[in-house]
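Reminder to self: tokens first, then the designed residues, so the page reads top to bottom the way the pipeline ran.
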């Protein structure tokens, strides 16, 4: 309890200008502190804690009055709600304590980043978040409509001030709440939903029942570790849980660089519905964000082009199935040996029937297509043309997912 009472540690102050003294009402603060000194002197209390506080306060006040750069850190702690002053003086010192704390808290918030402080820099407004790392606050969430718009100023308060950064008493945020969370923008949500309905009209039939859930999807640490690029993409999205005719979905949408809304409608499935045993990475993906039922609006080429579905556990299948006959015929025509595809898991299907698959034994990814429009694929050596292909720069399922995420990231704001 007395660590701060007797600590001799001093913090480097940043106040030195007369204007700062006026702005922070430090002269009025000293008037209040002298009133505290008088009150302590007139109080007849022989308890050890009171005497220790009285002696330390008088000594500290004397140092503050003679200091060129007064450091009110101890005063801030002593007069915090339920601090030493409140405990010792009770209701007698309530109003004086509030007055001191209001002024000293304003000083404190102009010495370093404190959680909940409203800050301004170059016309941008934001709030210091509760995130605490390495003993420092300073992660600022800016007041924008972007799902993720934070900037790390931890440990560089002086740079922030030098660049013109200020702490404000109050400010009415437009897009965020005081805790840094994004306000619900119903107008934008409705606009995006209308665009979504236009892009996927087949889903919105007469009598459709749709319910929104306030919960947001949570990404596991394992997901973040395996899919760092996809994690960045998802964190930039406006993500909503919704139920359509009793089926659970996640809707992710972004604002594209062409000012067009783009997004994914992902189906959240029961693991019991998965067709076959998915790879470990594949299962982590669908458990966190589901599989892509529909994608829409991206005005650039990507792996998601013309896909009927991607990653859906219930749609996955082993082997070539309908293409077995075609593949056998092509191998007979060309004299190539057939690949055993019984352990190949199909994880995405194009509208023309092309299939993306990974080998369950080694994780390698292949495209099987008799007709495709991709420019970044190569015929698999030792196999007939227009059967098995490899995708440039993609070896595994994780490579494929991360490339997809990178393509979308490059084309959103």
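Designed residues (413 positions):
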């Amino acid at each position: 309890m007395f660590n701060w009472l007797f600590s001799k540690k001093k913090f480097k102050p940043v106040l030195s200008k007369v204007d700062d003294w006026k702005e922070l009402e430090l002269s009025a603060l000293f008037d209040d502190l002298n009133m505290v000194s008088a009150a302590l002197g007139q109080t007849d209390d022989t308890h050890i804690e009171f005497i220790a506080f009285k002696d330390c306060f008088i000594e500290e006040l004397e140092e503050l009055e003679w200091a060129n750069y007064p450091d009110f850190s101890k005063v801030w702690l002593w007069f915090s709600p339920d601090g030493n002053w409140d405990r010792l003086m009770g209701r007698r010192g309530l109003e004086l304590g509030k007055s001191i704390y209001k002024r000293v808290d304003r000083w404190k918030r102009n010495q370093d980043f404190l959680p909940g402080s409203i800050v301004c820099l170059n016309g941008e407004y934001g709030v210091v978040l509760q995130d605490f790392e390495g003993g420092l606050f300073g992660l600022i969430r800016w007041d924008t409509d972007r799902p993720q718009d934070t900037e790390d100023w931890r440990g560089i308060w002086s740079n922030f001030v030098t660049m013109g950064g200020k702490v404000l008493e109050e400010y009415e945020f437009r897009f965020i709440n005081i805790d840094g969370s994004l306000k619900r923008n119903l107008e934008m949500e409705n606009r995006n939903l209308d665009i979504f309905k236009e892009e996927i009209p087949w889903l919105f039939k007469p009598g459709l029942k749709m319910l929104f859930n306030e919960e947001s999807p949570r990404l596991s640490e394992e997901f973040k570790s395996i899919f760092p690029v996809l994690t960045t993409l998802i964190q930039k999205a406006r993500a909503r849980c919704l139920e359509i005719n009793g089926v659970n979905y996640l809707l992710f949408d972004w604002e594209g660089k062409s000012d067009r809304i783009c997004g994914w409608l992902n189906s959240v499935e029961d693991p019991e519905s998965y067709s076959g045993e998915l790879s470990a990475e594949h299962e982590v993906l669908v458990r966190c964000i589901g599989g892509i039922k529909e994608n829409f609006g991206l005005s650039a080429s990507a792996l998601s082009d013309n896909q009927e579905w991607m990653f859906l556990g219930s749609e996955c299948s082993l082997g070539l199935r309908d293409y077995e006959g075609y593949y056998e015929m092509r191998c007979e025509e060309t004299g190539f040996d057939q690949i055993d595809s019984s352990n190949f898991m199909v994880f995405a299907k194009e509208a023309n029937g092309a299939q993306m698959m990974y080998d369950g034994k080694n994780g390698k990814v292949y495209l099987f297509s008799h007709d495709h429009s991709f420019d970044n694929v190569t015929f698999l050596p030792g196999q007939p043309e227009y059967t098995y292909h490899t995708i440039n720069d993609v070896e595994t399922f994780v490579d494929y997912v991360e490339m997809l995420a990178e393509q979308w990231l490059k084309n959103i704001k």
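Residues 238 and 373 are 31 Å apart (CA to CA).
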